[in-house]
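Weekly structure sync, notes
Attendees: PL (lead), two postdocs, one rotation student
Agenda item 3: pending single-chain targets
PL asked that the sequence for the first pending target be pasted directly into the notes so everyone works from the same version. It is reproduced below exactly as submitted, 560 residues in total.
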Amino acid sequence: MNSFSGKQRESVLQASEHERYDVIIIGGGITGAGIALDATTRGLKTALFEMQDFAAGTSSRSTKLIHGGLRYLKQFEIKLVADVGKERAIVYENGPHVTTPEWMLLPIYKGGTFGKFSTSIGLRLYDFLAGVKRYERRKMLNRKETLNKAPLLKKEGLLGGGYYVEYRTDDARLTIEVVKKAVEQGAQAVNYTKVESLLYEDEKVSGVVVKDLVTGKEYKVLAKRVINATGPWVDQIREIDGSKENKTLKLTKGVHIVIDQKKFPLKQAIYYDTKDGRMVFAIPREGKTYVGTTDTFYQDDLASPTVTKEDCDYLITTIHDMFPKVKLTLVDIESSWAGLRPLIHEDGKNPSEISRKDEIWQSKSGLITIAGGKLTGFRKMAEQVVDTMIESLDKEQDMPLGTCKTKNLPISGGDVGGSKDYKQFLAKKTRQLLKYDLDKMTADKLVRLYGSNIDRIIDYMKEDDSNAPKTDLPLYVQAMLLYSLEHEMTLNPLDFFVRRTGSLYFDINWVLTFKKQVTSYIASYYRWSNQTKSCYENSLDQVLGESRIAPLDRTIIKIR
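Predicted structure, written out during the meeting:
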């Protein structure tokens, strides 16, 4: 496996000034990661620059579902549902360790958004459009069957339910695994590097000026094509290019809250409608229940969308309405996150009505921009973007650049034999980990986190690496941390606790237990000054202290 360490960042950036890439991608969320993988597997020399950490924006702040968008049928977005529905199975097959089938219950109430007949027809159409496997096709439940699945549901007016499959994912891990696969295939990818300006030759975009936010150094990097895949920042890059015209972005904010199962003992994922006509998910995960999302227009700081008391009150109210026996207050919220959806502006529509479809724009300078879209459709979006780009490159180079190769390409960690053999792989590797005095739950979680890369974690647990920082961390945590530093370009504790492990959202006690040792370990690995270490410790403490109704800290601290 190729090393993908933060220690390599500066040498990669220095070398990039002496290259002329086929394509530079701005943005390291799931869209940019997908484009990098598609481009490099077609033989294109590819570089990707991300201003924050990989997946730090929208791609770690979604509902964490690879879903087909059932509610978009109500908006007659038939093609969108068909496209992303079919992509679900592809994403699952290429990375079954980060994507899991999840049966979803849609309760049907008298006078509710969905009626029995319309739900039955809608779910049948959904199965057809998405090409759902026979054993995952929808079932209609009567009132008793619905309550057996979810006894916490409101009983008044309940008629029954629709039962259908979505796919649960770890959105940040999915993004990281796609980035790692792109790097394994030959792409260069660097986090905490901000594109300050664009370069031009004969009025055509020919590269970028990128600033390393860790060292403060700037680099001029040339390319034949530049792709703007920056999500909420799309219009800012277009402004730099002087091409922000016609269609623009409309940002909406979505908030999720996390509650311990002891307070909200939900065992069945629920997709329920609210009194204001919206739809909300309540999903059990790792001993927690997370609920979301809100949908409101947003115009403030793009890097740090905030979770407000009003957002939390709204979601808690929906919980009380749908699950009347569950009594919650703000203090029961263990953690939360807010994400921005970069949607394409449509006059006169409220946030929930704006289409989630993606569009590709090409400016006079040749800058290619991808806007809109959904997590589920990232691979197909990438294919369309690269197809658009190579049409012109083919003409210039007078040579074919190949077709998309990602449909049947496992992402990093995905070499587990597909969904067919994954359970056997999971059981085998879990047994192997039990030899290292791990409990079954921890062992199982590690295999699900790393997939086929678990062998490297096991190697770290077996090896006595004299070059690794000394620590009193448990062996498995040390292995996770060293792997993330050397193979996932982790630069700081928030990268590790939020986007490499998801523990700040779903296991805050784990973070509290190991935060000091993890910070010290990373400080030793990168040889931070005491001042830098102290800054990161304070930043992490601030996040933990405010996690109930606050965003993650986005401060970039220079490593001295």
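Discussion points:
- Residues 548-560 have pLDDT under 50 and may be disordered.
- The longest strand covers residues 158-169.
Action: rotation student to compare against the earlier draft before next sync.
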